[in-house]
Amino acid sequence: MTMLQVKDFGKRFTIHHLGKTRQAVEHIHFSLEQGGFLGIVGKSGSGKSTILKSIYRTYYPDTGNIIYDSAHYGLIDLTQATEREILYLRKHEIGYVSQFLDVMPRTTSRELVETAILEMGETEETAKLEAEKVLTHFELDQKLWDHYPNTFSGGEKLRLNIAMATVKKPRLLLLDEPTASLDQQSKMKVREMIEKLKASGTTLVGIFHDIEFMDGLCDHVFDMQISQVGLVKEGVMHES
């Protein structure tokens, strides 16, 4: 079953103070089966994160369609979905992990993970146990569990970000450089969690500069090819 299909996707950005518009990506096509893992590779500035953010609908695509097979809505075009539909999908079906942590202030790391679990309809007791389990897995020091994340290091914030997304076991998980500031041991913890999610049926799309990390993990690789004028040509998808 096809979980995600991107058809002729394009996105441009307007630089208002210069009065100019820049084409970030265009003519992007790929599809991904349920439980598959697609890795997107390419040079910095090639539009990899733009694709992920448009699937998550942080950005509004300018052209094309992004068709997602939702457990709740059935086939839905994320480029046309309402804000209410997008909020539901983010809460219950689609997860996103970036290099950066953006959370509510005065909320502890433990509370953030517990809230993510409670949103899935679990009991408070289950949320407490599962939060402790995932925070332990990603080796976030127990002394930090009841502290506010704005005091954390970059690596600690990233591990918390990954914990919040993976604990919900989303149907579709988007990974935007999730290992960027992690040491090798922490990267292996992330890989282990990704392998477990994949084995349980989660579909994944990820961006990794660490090619060794992707080895044996991705089913397919989407290669962004850059033209001389800086526009993204149609990508090439091949077996990993």
UniProtKB/TrEMBL annotation:
- Which InterPro entries does the record cross-reference, listed alphabetically? AAA+_ATPase, ABC_transporter-like_ATP-bd, CP_lyase_PhnL, P-loop_NTPase
Q: Which domain of life is it from?
A: Bacteria
State one molecular function term (GO).
ATP hydrolysis activity
Domain (ABC transporter) spans 4-240
Q: Does the keyword Nucleotide-binding apply?
A: yes
- Pfam families from the UniProt entry: ABC_tran
Q: Which UniProt keywords apply?
A: ATP-binding, Nucleotide-binding
Q: Which family would the database say this protein is a member of?
A: Belongs to the ABC transporter superfamily.
Protein name as catalogued: Alpha-D-ribose 1-methylphosphonate 5-triphosphate synthase subunit PhnL
